[in-house]
Every structure is written in C-alpha cells, then in structure tokens.
User: Which sequence fits this backbone?
C-alpha cells in the first residue's frame, strides 16, 4: 500500500494548501484604488477614525458609539452598498461597519487569499496576505509629492495589510461558479464557500487536506462535445491505470472524483486521495506535460518491498535514484502518439506548475500568473516521456 512517505508531491513541487486558509473579497472604491493596491502590494479599508489603537484598547460598545457619531455626519461609502450585516436600520449600519473593520484587522490571517476586483470587475487579482494590519499616515500627500504626474489614484485609507499577488485574470477568464461570488457589493466579505473555485483558478495542481486536485483546460471555442469528453476520459483512465500498474499501486478509477465545467474553455477537475489515487494523478499530470512539451526529463521509482513505500525521482538520465544501488524503473506512458494527438486536437492546456519541473525551474508567482496559457501544442515533439 502506498503511504505518504513516498515523495511524489515534494519532487514535483506540488503546492500544499492549508485547510485553515480563508478567502475574502475586498472592494477598491469602485475600482479607483485597484491600480494602487496591485502596484504597491497592499490592501486597505476605510473608517480611519477607528484606529488600531482604539480597536486594541476599547470595548465593542465604545467603538460602535464612535462609529455612530462619525457616520451620522458622513456620506455613504461607495463600497458599502447592499451589506448582508446591514438590516437598513441605524444600528444595522453601525454593526456592519464594525464587523468589516474587525474582520480586516483581526480575522484575516497571513496566508489567507484576497480577491481584488478592478472597475466593473474587468480584472480580478488574486493575492495572498503576507502581513498583519498596520497604519500609514500622509500616504496620499507623500505619494503625490514624489510623483505629481501619476495617473494612479492613491488610496487615502490608513489601515492596511501587505499582500503578494499570485495571479490576475480577466472577467472572461473567470470560473462561472466563482463569478457568482462577485454579486456582493460591500467593502469586505468572506468567500470561503467559493474556495474550491478560487484554488483551481490559482493552481492547476495542488494538495489540500487528504486530497490532490488537478485541473485541465480543454476544448474549442464552443466547448467539448460528448464524444470528445468520453474519448478523453477513456484515454486518461487507461494512462492512469498503466502508470499505477508500473508502480504497483492498487489504483481504482472509482476513487477519482470528477468535476466538469464544459464551457469555453472546458474545465475538468480530477480529485483523488493523496495516499493512493492522488499519487497516480500526480504521475499522470507530470507525464502529460512531458509528452506535450517534448520534455527530456523522466520519472523513475524505487519501491521498498518490506514497507511498500515508493521513492520517486525526476531526472534526465534515469540511471536510478540517488542513494540506491539498484537501477530504478522508468515509468512509461501508454499510447504516447495517440494521446499526444488527442491533446493537440482538444487544445489541452498543460498545468504550468508541473511544466516548470521540465525546465528545472522553481514555481514563482510570475509562473502562476501565466496559468492556463494558450500555447499551441506541437505534434512534432519527439522527446516524449519514457
């Protein structure tokens, strides 16, 4: 039986996502501050009169009284319409503002994911929170002093969090299921119910909890036909079984969960338990990338007959895994020529994170941002995975 003492996730640099990660959307004053947020890698929230010092030292009741005083003499925040916490009453409005401020400062954690929409949500940047809440003074004045000709509108809000952009997508590229989460218009809201759609937008392959997820993008402008879907599924199943047989993994295709979004482009998400089927999925995605990209690297394995553990290695010579005296077995992919032709015909996009392995590169935010590229597949590739 395969155990996670096998090292496949590590050698393929497959990202591991914490199950404790949370997901949020923060508005940008109808897009006004989007460019500033992204260029300078931070997010911010309004209501400067509620300072970090007040939040850390005053009671909830005292802070709400402060909000009431200020809001009675101020106009409505453009990013604060149709708030779920606001029942239309004065008390509801105060509670809604208090909740957003405390979420921003205390509930959002480092490692959480933030969705940042531009005007009309034409672009959405997905970023990771990398810092605690802090305050900045005189930001706009200093910014305009240093760059008086800027076309960017600097954000005046003082409470901020540092971020690291992971990926920017256009509205047309957005997962249709994720798009539903953008109906909410208030300044800050939780998006945890859309976590699976956000994760697969960021990563083509990743592990989370005890599952491995991998996403393929396929299809023509009008999507996949039923015949094409059946042929692709059959080919992937045969290839997965063939790889499992070589590794001695007790693979059962019924353990693979499939989620489909057959739109343009079609999204096919495969999910399997890391301990068994997830290992097979990892090998399958690596092999497909090697096949598509004409990779010269190959993957080999060494199985411990006593424990059943498998050690994998990615190498160009495949003379065996370092540290083992015996020559390791090289994995082969069944029906390589036919599979390559199918990948070309269906315009399959290769998972970019695994593609980086083929070139000996590290996974970087820039590479992640280039996910789902529209690079044409070459049917002339000769150096396929062995």
Assistant:
């Amino acid at each position: 039986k395969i155990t996670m003492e096998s090292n496949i996730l590590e050698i393929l640099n497959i990202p591991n996502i914490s199950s404790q990660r949370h997901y949020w959307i923060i508005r940008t004053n109808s897009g006004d501050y989007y460019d500033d947020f992204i260029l300078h890698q931070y997010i911010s929230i309004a209501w400067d009169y509620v300072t970090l010092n007040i939040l850390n030292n005053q009671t909830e009741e005292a802070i709400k009284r402060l909000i009431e005083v200020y809001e009675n003499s101020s106009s409505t925040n453009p990013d604060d319409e149709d708030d779920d916490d606001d029942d239309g009453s004065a008390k509801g409005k105060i509670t809604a503002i208090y909740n957003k401020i405390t979420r921003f400062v205390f509930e959002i954690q480092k490692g959480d994911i933030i969705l940042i929409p531009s005007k009309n949500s034409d672009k959405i940047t997905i970023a990771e929170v990398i810092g605690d809440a802090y305050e900045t003074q005189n930001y706009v004045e200093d910014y305009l002093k240093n760059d008086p000709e800027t076309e960017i509108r600097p954000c005046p809000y003082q409470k901020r969090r540092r971020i690291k952009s992971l990926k920017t997508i256009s509205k047309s590229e957005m997962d249709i299921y994720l798009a539903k989460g953008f109906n909410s218009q208030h300044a800050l809201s939780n998006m945890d119910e859309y976590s699976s759609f956000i994760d697969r937008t960021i990563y083509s392959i990743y592990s989370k909890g005890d599952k491995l997820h991998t996403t393929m993008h396929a299809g023509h402008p009008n999507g996949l036909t039923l015949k094409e879907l059946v042929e692709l599924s059959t080919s992937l199943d045969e290839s997965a079984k063939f790889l499992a047989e070589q590794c001695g993994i007790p693979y059962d295709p019924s353990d693979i969960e499939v989620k489909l979004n057959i739109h343009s482009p079609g999204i096919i998400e495969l999910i399997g338990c890391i301990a068994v089927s997830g290992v097979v999925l990892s090998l399958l995605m690596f092999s497909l990338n090697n096949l598509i990209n004409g990779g010269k690297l190959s993957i080999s394995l060494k199985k411990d007959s006593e424990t059943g553990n498998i050690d994998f290695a990615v190498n160009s010579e495949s003379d065996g895994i370092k540290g083992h005296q015996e020559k390791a077995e090289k994995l082969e992919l069944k029906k390589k020529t036919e599979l390559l032709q199918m990948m070309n015909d269906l315009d399959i996009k290769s998972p970019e994170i695994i593609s980086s392995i083929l070139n000996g590169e590290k996974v970087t935010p820039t590479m992640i941002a280039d996910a789902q590229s529209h690079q044409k597949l070459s049917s002339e590739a000769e150096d396929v995975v062995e």
Observations:
- Confidence is low (pLDDT under 50) at residues 316-326, 353-361, 363-386.
- The chain is about 35% helix and 20% strand.
- The two ends are 25 Å apart (CA to CA).
- The longest strand covers residues 159-170.
